[in-house]
Design a protein that fits this description.
The chain is of the alpha+beta class. It has ten helices and ten strands.
């Protein structure tokens, strides 16, 4: 997963978010609001997963298996590296033919086309370049960023007279766009749409924050029975039992790196309650809760555009099957990581990594199927 790289891409799907429903009474205090939300979340979590939740989980699992994705264990270590977004297939074996379903970039385009349709998808995907980078040999040169969309490159490729060259150019343009344009939210949107969710129930988008904020709006509207058909509500992440089909989300805002998950949730609640346009928690990512292993106190989540592919993570749960705050792993201390930092093998060793688990994220909200 990468941060958005283009204004046009970041803007898509960011229509004005619904404001909190306002009753004809003084608003509840934040503490009272979240107490009410937690009670609602607990009541739903005590029920078996819905049929829709099971379909969402199964489609995520199917896409992971079809992609041949990466696997991360409960210690946060990558133990299987699968297909990536830019690859043709995991093991070409010299075969001159390939099933399109074995092409990583083709699979990603499937998610984009589900979101934007066949005719306009390539207009929405960005390709980034750097002026003269393809010809310059000067590694110290500072190059100007160049931006275009995949559709422009495809039109240029169509001018090639040789059909083999033309197709190779078209595929190169698409592969570049798939690499340069974040697709994790497109993956979530594809999974939820394929499960049968209607457009009025989920805000299909290329930005996770679009449907995260909408889940917060649902939580605020539920006390007045004005949440409509929204699929998801926003639940506290470490005090709510997840079910299959829920979405587990983290944030990557630099300004929020040292604050608690409660602070992040309250900021989002307050922004919506104000009725204004501010949506400051923008760098977010969500993954599908695909399976709960109650006996082992673990759960599996699946996300797209994670390590440039589809990745399944095995996360630690508490005994009560709520998400554990312990996903950190063990770095082994300063004596463990001794690789020199300077060229020639000399110099002092690099500091040990601060985060030794790929599961150690700023998880802040569980989007619970209502």
């Amino acid at each position: 997963m990468r941060a958005p790289v283009c204004a046009i891409v970041a803007a898509i799907g960011l229509a004005a978010q619904p404001a909190f429903a306002q009753a004809d009474r003084p608003p509840a205090s934040p503490a009272a609001f979240w107490k009410t939300v937690q009670a609602t979340c607990d009541a739903t979590a005590a029920k078996p997963p819905s049929e829709l939740g099971k379909r969402i989980a199964q489609i995520a699992l199917d896409e992971f298996n079809r992609f041949g994705g990466h696997q991360v264990d409960s210690n946060g270590r990558l133990f299987r590296f699968g297909l990536t977004e830019a690859e043709h297939k995991e093991d070409d074996g010299g075969d001159p033919r390939a099933s399109l379903g074995h092409l990583g970039w083709w699979q990603v385009m499937k998610y984009w086309r589900s979101l934007f349709g066949d005719n306009s998808t390539t207009d929405k995907l960005e390709v980034v370049g750097y002026r003269d980078a393809s010809t310059s040999m000067d590694q110290e040169k500072v190059a100007e960023v160049l931006r275009t969309d995949a559709a422009s490159l495809l039109r240029a490729a169509d001018s090639a007279s040789d059909p083999t060259v033309r197709e190779a150019l078209r595929e190169a343009a698409i592969r570049a766009a798939v690499i340069d344009t974040p697709w994790s939210a497109a993956f979530i949107s594809y999974v939820v749409k394929q499960a049968g969710a209607p457009a009025n129930a989920f805000k299909f988008s290329n930005a996770h924050r679009t449907y995260i904020y909408d889940a917060f709006a649902a939580s605020a509207a539920e006390p007045t029975n004005t949440a409509g058909d929204r699929l998801y509500r926003a639940c506290p992440v470490f005090t709510t039992k997840p079910r299959v089909g829920d979405l587990l989300c983290f944030q990557r805002e630099p300004s929020l790196a040292d604050v608690s998950d409660e602070v992040v949730r309250e900021r989002m609640r307050a922004e919506l309650a104000s009725g204004g346009p501010i949506r400051s928690v923008r760098r977010t990512h969500c993954e599908v809760v695909a399976s709960i292993d109650a006996g082992a106190s673990k759960m599996y989540v699946i996300g797209g555009n994670v390590h440039q592919g589809i990745t399944a993570k095995r996360l630690n749960l508490q005994r009560d099957l709520k998400l554990s705050t312990t996903q950190t792993g063990n770095c082994g201390g300063a004596a463990y990581w001794t690789m020199p930092t300077t060229s020639g093998g000399g110099g002092s060793a690099a500091a040990p990594p601060k985060k030794c688990s790929l599961n150690d994220k700023k998880w802040f909200v569980l989007m619970q199927l209502r």
